[in-house]
Amino acid sequence: MRKRTPLIVGNWKMNKTRAQTLDYLNKFVKGVSGIASREIGVAPPFTSLVTASDALKGSNVKLCAQNVHWDESGQYTGEISPSMLKDYNVEYAIIGHSERRKFFGETNDSVNKRVKGALKSGLKVILCVGETKEERESGKTQNVVKSHLIGGLDGIGVQDLLKSIVIAYEPVWAIGTGLNATVEQAVEVHQFIRTTLDSIYGAGTSDKIRILYGGSVKPENIDGFMATADIDGALVGGASLEAESFTRIVDFKEV
Length: 255
Ligand code: PGA
What we know:
This protein has helices at 18-32, 49-56, 82-86, 98-103, 108-120, 133-137, 141-152, 158-164, 183-201, 222-226, 243-250, and strands at 7-11, 39-43, 61-65, 90-95, 124-129, 165-169, 211-214, 233-236. It is an alpha/beta fold. Strands 1-2-3-4-5-6-7-8 form an eight-stranded parallel barrel, surrounded by six helices. Helix 1 (18-32) runs parallel beside helix 2, helix 1 (18-32) runs parallel beside helix 11 (243-250) and helix 5 (108-120) crosses helix 7 (141-152).
């Protein structure tokens, strides 16, 4: 028996026009309609949110966003506010993805502001944490993951954490490389994340928090990840871009 409901989210990154979004979702929604006891989400680019929001109405697939700003409106060229996302029934916002940290100057501080802004508007958050190859090789994995957690969650109370936050452990070296972490590597860090959350929020807290794995998840390896008690789901990039392959991931087999 699982302690927590699995959550599988497809992060499309900067992919798909509106027509491609519609074509994909028509297939995907049908393919996963019979899947129960699992939470399913897709995070299209902002330009496809309108199309996706309509296509997902009445389905068991939740709409997610790839980022969100902390303020409700203002002079922030190129940003999207929490209430703009709520307008499209977005349920989760991914915050702190390593591509945002690497290419767009996202820091623990800006991640934390975005998390707070999202929670204020009632959006749920998928907070991404994870180390680079160099950091792993120099033995800094735990320090980095801990700093992403402490920084990202600064000032967030336990009620908000339990109600609205999911953590995604995404080792940067495994993202988009085809080289996934082994189940043992992922479990080791997931357990470290649970210990860290318990030390911040009190013993037993992490029992109620979902921690996803992300980084080259594919139809061939999802069953192995989901066979462990510590991994509660997946954040999937490349393999979520084809409806068939993402359907198989969402429909992972309990082994
Ligand atoms: P990937 O991306 O599945 O293509 O490795 C995962 C992510 O960036 O969330």
